[in-house]
Amino acid sequence: DAKTTQPTSMDCAEGRAANLPCNHSTISGNEYVYWYRQIHSQGPQYIIHGLKNNETNEMASLIITEDRKSSTLILPHATLRDTAVYYCIVRSYNNAGNMLTFGGGTRLMVKP
Amino acid sequence: EAQVTQNPRYLITVTGKKLTVTCSQNMNHEYMSWYRQDPGLGLRQIYYSMNVEVTDKGDVPEGYKVSRKEKRNFPLILESPSPNQTSLYFCASRKQDGSSYEQYFGPGTRLTVT
User: Fold this and answer.
1) Any CB–CB contact under 8 A between A45 and chain B?
2) Closest C-alpha to A85, from A18, A16, A3, A17
3) Which of A45, A47, B43, B63 is the most exposed place for a label (fewest CB within 10 A)?
4) How many CB atoms lie within 10 A of CB A61?
C-alpha cells in the first residue's frame, strides 16, 4: 500500500471549514483513499473514502486531485467535537489482510 | 445499535498471568481484527479473521492468540503477558464481501502489564 504524508498538526476556528491535506504520490490505480479519525484514545471512526471522484457524505467532503497524488478532507463547519487525529490511508481493494495502516495522522485542534 | 464491544476496558495485570480480552460485534460481519496502538508507532494489526474458524497473523502476532468459534466473537488471548504488551488494544470488524469499506472499531482496552 502507498505511503501517505500529512501535516503533524493544524488549528481551525470553530464554525470555519477545516481543510486537511494528504500527499500520496505513489498511489497506484487500484488504491483507494480512506479517512478515519480518532478522538482521544477512542476507537478510530470511518469518515469517508474515494477512488478518483470527489465524494461527500454527512460528515465531510473528499477532494482528490486529477493525478490522484494528493487529496483534501474538508469538514465544512468544524465544531469543538471535531478535535481529533485525522488519518489518511491508502489501501488497495485486494489487501488480503484488510489491514488499515495508520500513520501519524494530523492532530486537528478546533478552537472557539 | 450497530457496535463493537470490548471487555474489559481497563486491565492491570502481572507478568505471566494469562488473560483474555473479549470482542463482540452485532453486525453479522465476517471480518474481524485486533490492533494495538502505541505512542509513535500508530495502530498495528495483531491478528485478523475473515470468517469463522479462519484466522491469520497480522504485523505483530508474537505473544498473542485468537480464536473465531462464532461469527460475532473474536477474543484476544495473552497466554503469558509481558510488560512490552502494555498497550491500547482495539478490535474492529467489517463486511467481507467488498460492498463495505468501513471498519467499525471498538472502544479500546487499555492493558498494563507490570
Assistant:
1) yes
2) A18
3) B63
4) 17
Bridge partners, residue B90, by sequence: B35
Runs of H (alpha helix) within A1-112: none
Look up residue A71 and give its amino acid: S
Which letter does DSSP use for residue A42 in this model? Answer: S
Size of interface A-B (CB pairs under 8 A): 53
Whether residue A59 lies within 8 A of chain B, CB to CB, comes out as no
Q: Which of B4, B58, B101 sits opposite A34 (nearest CB)?
A: B101
Averaged pLDDT, B5-25: 97
Residues of B whose CB is below 8 A from A34: 101
Q: Check: CB of residue B89 under 8 Å from CB of residue B70.
A: no
A34 bridge partner residues: A49, A89
pLDDT digits (tens, 9 = 90+) for B26-83: 999 999 999 999 988 888 999 999 999 999 999 899 999 999 999 999 999 999 999 9
* Residues in Cβ contact with B80 at an 8 Å cutoff, skipping those fewer than 6 apart: B15, B16, B18, B63
Residue numbers of A between 71 and 110 with CB closer than 8 Å to B: 93, 97-105
